[in-house]
Inverse folding.
């Protein structure tokens, strides 16, 4: 029997009233503060906080705020309790979980209350890619072009360099002043939290429990640099052949609009890129999926069954019917991105389309659902993910497993007419690397620039040139055109990456740690053996392996009861607690070897010549080959 809409509305109003009443009990002059600030009183307080948290999470699912992240909203719901919590001597609690719970929750006390300015700045940065402020090149009177829906399509499909260059420049020149104002608001927001002893970036990395995480990320990028330089030289040669020698400057730097074009075309069949062995065509995955007759909910079922094969408790039909909802056509943005409510009661709104990228992403979505179910066994504070991006890293490890030819052929029954020999597999790795190896340095540049901004290592008048210096160092690119004075040239993903939901830290973290978790599991279960051509890392599928499932389950079921470094420690015999690039380099090692040898055979110069954009006229002499990056 369906419940009348009025009843739902009345129930939600009662729920909201309960939340307000519960919070009011703990406002400034709280008459119900415990008489003794001991562990028993702390447990009682946290029980009441848990009730408020769950009630707030339930209400949020009914009235989702599309500006602020759930984490920020839940932090605000617990704010009335912070003052009472800080009166406890929680650092000396005997119960380690209780101590950890106080530690995690009280991180929220460091942040100022959310106000209108914060919400406005967040909304501006989060939505800027969909705002229409650029005029059509062919019809200048029509100024209704947004980046994500229109300009990105031009970059993806056009071979007209003048057109691509035009939109690259105009999007930046026409950017509304409110975007720069929102950026500066966020810089001030983090600086205002700092003290003489604590830099703003320490708050940025607070949930990672490492104020100097940027240095670990920097070491990871340094480890990838030799491989990236080989890819850069290979790509530069392709672009010269396609567009002519004059598109690449003598410095060897690639114009940024061309690098963006390559990145956007990474998942496209017809692309600037040319696979290493053109005679060995990669399968048309859409044709394969259509031939198998998959429907949108089939992708969900396949993903659920994957976790069942690992020993996870099966999600019942009743649970999926109640908690999994097919999105309406046209929702989810251009990438048909699923929406997951992974706090409080779990809910998945899944994409109504079937294509290969969505097959992989759905496995990541179900990983997030499984993670949410496990961590929700903890009370408030401990029911969070270990750190932002940790859940996505677990999902990335699963995606790497299900994307292997072994899994697609043996488990899903597709690609039966393809023999993945070394040549075809190199083509596959090439397309994967084109996407990953060109995006990781981009996210790192955004991360490094942002940290330098908030920590004051670069002044506002040098923000733009510092950005291009970083882009040169880590990506070997330069601006294709000079923009107007005072304009910031960073792409929309930089601005998005400042907002909690899309922070660039998460992307870097989940990619590196995801590969690392994948490699560790594959080593532990014997599906990957070094120097064994029959068990390469890039074809390790751990479907059906309960031992692999135990590793994933243990990490998921830890919630935030321990720091993330402690959670990953059991993965390796040496109890490794830091991120490394080893897994990434081993995964792509066959491709790295091929590209390096191909570059040598074509006598291609690897590297590029730096130009200090903050000090004009400092281009290094052409014969200074020892200063190539």
């Amino acid at each position: 029997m369906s419940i009348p809409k009025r009843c739902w509305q009345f129930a939600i109003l009662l729920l909201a009233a309960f939340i307000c009443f519960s919070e009011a009990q703990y406002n400034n002059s709280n008459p119900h503060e415990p008489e003794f600030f001991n562990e028993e009183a702390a447990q009682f307080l946290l029980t009441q906080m848990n009730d408020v948290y769950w009630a707030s999470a339930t209400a949020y699912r009914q009235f989702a705020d599309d500006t602020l992240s759930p984490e920020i909203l839940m932090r605000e719901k617990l704010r009335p309790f912070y003052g009472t919590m800080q009166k406890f001597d929680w650092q000396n609690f005997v119960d380690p979980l209780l101590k950890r719970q106080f530690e995690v929750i009280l991180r929220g006390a460091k942040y100022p209350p959310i106000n209108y300015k914060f919400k406005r700045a967040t909304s501006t940065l989060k939505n800027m890619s969909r705002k229409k402020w650029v005029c059509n090149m062919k019809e200048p009177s029509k100024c209704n072009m947004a980046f994500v829906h229109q300009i990105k399509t031009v970059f993806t499909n056009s071979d007209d360099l003048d057109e691509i260059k035009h939109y690259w420049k105009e999007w930046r020149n026409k950017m509304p002043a409110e975007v720069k104002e929102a950026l500066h608001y966020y810089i001030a927001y983090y600086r205002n939290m700092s003290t003489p002893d604590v830099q703003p970036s320490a708050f940025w990395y607070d949930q990672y429990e490492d104020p100097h995480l940027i240095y670990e990320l920097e070491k990871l990028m340094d480890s990838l640099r030799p491989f990236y330089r080989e890819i850069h030289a290979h790509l530069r040669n392709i672009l010269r052949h396609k567009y002519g020698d004059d598109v690449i400057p003598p410095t060897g730097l690639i114009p940024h609009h061309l690098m963006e074009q390559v990145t956007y075309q990474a998942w496209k069949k017809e692309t600037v890129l040319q696979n290493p062995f053109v005679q060995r065509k990669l399968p048309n995955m859409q044709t394969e999926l259509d031939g198998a007759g998959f429907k949108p909910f089939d992708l969900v079922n396949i993903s659920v069954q994957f976790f069942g094969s690992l020993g996870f408790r099966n999600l019942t039909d009743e649970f999926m019917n109640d908690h999994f909802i097919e999105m309406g056509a046209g929702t989810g943005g251009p990438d048909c991105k699923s929406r997951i409510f992974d706090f409080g009661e779990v809910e998945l709104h899944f994409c109504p389309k079937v294509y290969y990228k969505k097959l992989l992403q759905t496995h990541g979505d179900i990983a997030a659902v499984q993670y949410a179910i496990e961590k929700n066994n903890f009370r408030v504070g401990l029911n969070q993910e270990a750190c932002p991006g940790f859940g996505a890293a677990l999902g990335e490890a699963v995606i790497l497993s299900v994307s292997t030819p072994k899994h697609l052929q043996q488990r899903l029954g597709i690609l039966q007419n393809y023999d993945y020999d070394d040549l075809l597999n190199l083509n596959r790795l090439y397309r994967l690397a084109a996407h990953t190896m060109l995006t990781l340095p981009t996210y790192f540049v955004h991360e490094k620039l942002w940290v330098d901004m908030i920590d004051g290592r670069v002044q506002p008048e040098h923000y733009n040139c510092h950005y291009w210096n970083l882009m040169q160092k880590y990506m070997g690119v330069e601006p294709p055109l000079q923009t107007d004075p005072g304009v910031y040239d960073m792409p929309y993903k930089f601005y998005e990456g400042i907002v909690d939901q899309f922070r660039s830290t998460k992307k870097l973290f989940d990619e590196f740690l995801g590969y690392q978790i994948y490699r560790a599991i594959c080593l532990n279960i014997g599906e990957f053996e070094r120097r064994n051509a029959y068990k390469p890392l890039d074809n390790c599928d751990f479907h059906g392996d309960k031992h692999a499932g135990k590793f994933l389950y243990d990490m998921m079921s830890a919630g935030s009861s321990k720091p993330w470094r402690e959670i990953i420690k059991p993965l390796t015999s040496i109890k490794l607690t830091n991120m490394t690039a080893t897994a990434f380099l081993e995964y792509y090692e066959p491709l790295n070897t091929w590209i390096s040898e191909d570059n040598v055979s074509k006598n291609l110069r690897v590297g590029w010549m730096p130009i200090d954009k903050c000090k004009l006229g400092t281009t290094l002499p052409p014969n200074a080959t020892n200063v190539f990056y």
